[in-house]
Design goal:
204 residues; alpha+beta; Cathepsin D, subunit A, domain 1; globular
């Protein structure tokens, strides 16, 4: 069989569209300044994070082999939101309008977003806008909270939200789909967020 001449079967899309440095000229300039500041100070101010790794002990409670995606429960604006998909391939954090409706959020305005998103079904989706909300990972006292920018879309999906590269960077988190864990530093220790309805946090 000639393996170089197989017909194209389809395209597997990832979520993309909005630039990681922002949707506006002002945001891109701010991103550029932050990169310049990082270049100047990176040798002196690198965070002293604990080493994050995964081993056989992280597979306790995980039924293998599996092909599961990694979903966790996180606290968004004081709501425990389950079924949040951890997606290293997404250049944005996504919150669905149906999730916001359940959170009964009123009286807020979206920041306009002009760049469409691609990847949900292979076609362009126009976001409703962007909103910044507090997001917490873990359970007290093993909890970290950051202000996270979410792109809001009105599209039905099996998840309540998607945490992409921007939030994983902010939390300095490392995900392992195989181990079904998300690990992130809390002070001088690292903690894991285990898949499940309560996403139990445990010390590593």
């Amino acid at each position: 069989m000639d393996e170089d001449n197989h017909p194209m079967r389809g395209i597997i899309h990832m979520i993309s569209g909005r630039a990681t440095d922002g949707d506006s000229g002002r945001a891109r300039k701010a991103h550029g300044r932050s990169l310049e500041n990082f270049e100047i100070s990176r040798s002196a101010d690198l965070p002293q994070d604990p080493v994050i790794s995964f081993g056989p002990e992280d597979l306790r409670g995980v039924v293998t082999p599996h092909n599961d995606v990694l979903v966790v429960t996180a606290t968004i604006d004081n709501y425990d939101v389950a079924m949040i998909f951890i997606d290293n391939g997404s250049s944005v954090n996504v919150l669905f309008k149906s999730t916001l409706d359940q959170m009964k959020m009123k009286g807020f305005e979206f920041e306009p977003v002009s760049t469409p998103l691609y990847g949900f079904a292979g076609h362009a989706i126009s976001p409703l806008g962007q909103i910044v909300l507090p997001l917490s990972l873990g359970i007290d006292p093993r909890r970290v909270t950051k202000m996270i920018a979410f792109t809001v879309v009105d599209t039905p999906l099996a998840y309540n939200g998607i945490l992409g590269r921007p939030s994983l960077k902010d939390f300095r988190a490392v995900a392992s789909t195989y181990h079904q864990k998300l690990k992130f530093p809390v002070g001088k220790r690292s903690w894991s967020l285990v898949r499940g309805p309560k996403s139990r946090a445990s010390m590593l």
